[in-house]
Amino acid sequence: MYFKIHNKAPKFTEPLGSELVVGEQPNLEGKPFETFIAQAYWCESELQEEANVIWINQQGLWHHLCFDEDIVFWRIMDEGPKYTPPKEEDIWDFPLEDLNKKHELEGQVLESIEHKITEANASVEFKFSNGLSLKIVSQNDSTKIET
């Protein structure tokens, strides 16, 4: 599945050392997410990444967040994810999980987004008006969600 990427020439910033945030973090604070999805990655029936891609829809605009070790990528996409079940012979799967439902975030306003990049990992933390914090952490080429 391929998507058109709007920010064709991403801006690079250096928050710490040589680690990078590629693209521009969108201004999402002050409003609830209409859709907040984690796209996992399974291979040979084993979970490889709980949050291979994070999809956020706010006011009709799709934001795509992913990691490559200590690099954070933000992109704006034309459309959101569509689950395609694997064929019988496939060894991988990319299921979608609704984080709004799982963490009872319907109508909760996003208060802040914080990037943390260290030698050990990279993370993006989302803090909501109900006090919940969801942190997407990339470490050792695997991404997970912490609450």
Provide tags for this entry.
four-stranded antiparallel beta sheet; 12 strands; about 150 residues
Secondary structure layout:
Layout: E1 12-13, E2 20-22, E3 35-43, E4 46-58, E5 61-68, E6 71-77, E7 92-93, E8 96-98, H1 99-102, E9 110-117, E10 122-128, E11 133-139, E12 142-146
Parallel strand pairs: 2-6
Antiparallel strand pairs: 1-2, 3-4, 3-7, 3-8, 4-5, 5-6, 9-10, 10-11, 11-12
The number of helical elements comes to 1
How many DSSP E strands? 12
The residue fraction in helices comes out at under 10%
Order of helices and strands: EEEEEEEEHEEEE
Number of domains: 1
- Percentage of residues in DSSP E strands: over 45%
3D architecture notes:
The chain is mostly beta strands and 147 residues long. It has one domain (17-80, 88-146). Helix content is 3%, strand content 50%. It has 1 helix and 12 strands. The chain has one helix spanning 99-102, and strands at residues 12-13, 20-22, 35-43, 46-58, 61-68, 71-77, 92-93, 96-98, 110-117, 122-128, 133-139, 142-146. The strands form 2 sheets. Strands 1, 2, 3, 4, 5, 6, 7 and 8 form an 8-stranded mixed sheet that branches. A hairpin with a 6-residue loop joins strand 1 and strand 2 (20-22). The radius of gyration is 15 Å and the shape is globular. The chain starts with 11 loop residues before the first strand and ends with a strand.
In short:
This protein has 147 residues and is mainly beta.
